[in-house]
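Lecture notes, unit on protein representations.

Consider one protein chain, 96 amino acids long.
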Amino acid sequence: MPRRLHQSDSVLEIRGRIIAIKELGKTKREIAEDVGLLPRQVQRQISRYVNDNGRPLQTLPRTGRNPVLQENDVNTIVEFNAQRPFTGSAQIKEEV
């Protein structure tokens, strides 16, 4: 299954186990006991799987603050810092 940044393999493994056990015909309560989750959490994963027509169970995108720096800005700062490793942030801000 695809993995998102900062997502542990164990989360995806549990989601996969939930679907696999469900396809074996076990109840939500039995699945919950097997994987160590609440039945409503198991139901949520099963519903997502059914509603997404069997697509891999990925973590949904989260809302949040947009990045302050663009990727090219980050690359510029990284390159600058590689050339001058002990430069302070104030000096980097002035020169970049």
